[in-house]
Amino acid sequence: MATGFRQGHQQQEGSMTQPLSIAVVDYEGGNLASAARAALRAAELSGIAADVVITNEPTAVLQADRIILPGQGAFADCARGLEAIPGLKDSILNATAKGTPFLGICVGMQLMAERGREHGVTEGFGWIPGEITLMEATGLRLPQMGWNELELHTQHPLTQGLGAAPHGYFVHSYALQNTAADVLLATTDYGGNVPAIVCKGNVAGTQFHVEKSQTVGLKILANFLRWDPKAPV
After folding, report:
1. Of 195, 167, 169, 222, which Cα lies nearest the Cα of 38?
2. How many CB atoms lie within 10 A of CB 121?
3. What tens digit of pLDDT does each residue of 112-129 get?
4. Residues of the chain by 3-state class (helix, strand, coil), percent to 5
């Protein structure tokens, strides 16, 4: 069922453009309302007609124009949360397989990896090479909590217009390790390079919380709403 949040931003009167449908996946993974509000705000600031719904209905996810998967807490708990709702994980897999753009946030990004090693070994979606392990940050506090600078590695539609020295808001103790260079759009420095934005085909993720990252986060969300993964980069 849809769970408590639906709003729309309409274009100017007379427009026949169908609003972009954005599904924020509800698997009791936390931060749902914040992510939905941020997506709607990004659409409003960009003049994009959009309907945002928090939902755990597989059909709604499968039919959405954009999928956002927030997440906070432990990898294993979030993976179990998805598995516990019949058809929900399959709807994400089927939608992304047919090309629907996907954005994972924090643990939502981590679930894109092959596996997580928090509270045992748990399989992820397998879209991004590598695994989620405890960060090695000698002399630094874990979790990493607060603002940190993003180092952009390549030009990409998702990172356009972020300006000089963009920062994201991070809260995590585990991070993606042993991934491939060609999926890294950005890293951050916390006792070494930490993957911050990843992308492969039509699926992307941010280790930091875009919904808490103010102007930078809203810009990334607006870029995501406009993103056509089939267009040349």
Report:
1. 222
2. 11
3. 999 999 888 999 999 999
4. 30, 35, 40
Contacts of 153 (CB under 8 A, 6+ apart): 181, 184, 185, 186, 187
Query: In this structure, are residues 124 and 112 in contact, taking their beta carbons and an 8 Å threshold?
Result: yes
Cα separation, 184 vs 168, in Å, equals 16
* Residue 118, CA atoms < 13 Å, CB-side half-sphere: 27
Predicted confidence (pLDDT) at residue 19 exceeds the cutoff of 60: yes
Give the H or E element holding residue 21. Answer: strand 20-25
Cα Rg of the chain, angstroms: 17
The overall average pLDDT reported for the chain is 91
The DSSP result for 24-83, as a single string, is EE-SS-S-HHHHHHHHHHHHHHHT--EEEEEE--HHHHHH-SEEEE---S-HHHHHHHHH
Please identify every residue annotated as catalytic.
106, 209, 211
Amino acid, single-letter form, for residue 147? W
Which residues are 69's β-sheet partners? 104
Report cis status (omega within 30 of 0) of the bond before 143: yes
- Name 164's Cβ contacts closer than 8 Å, sequence gap at least 6: none
Cα 21 to Cα 23: distance, rounded to the nearest angstrom = 7
Using DSSP bridges, classify how beta strands 102-105 and 113-116 pair: parallel, antiparallel or unpaired.
unpaired
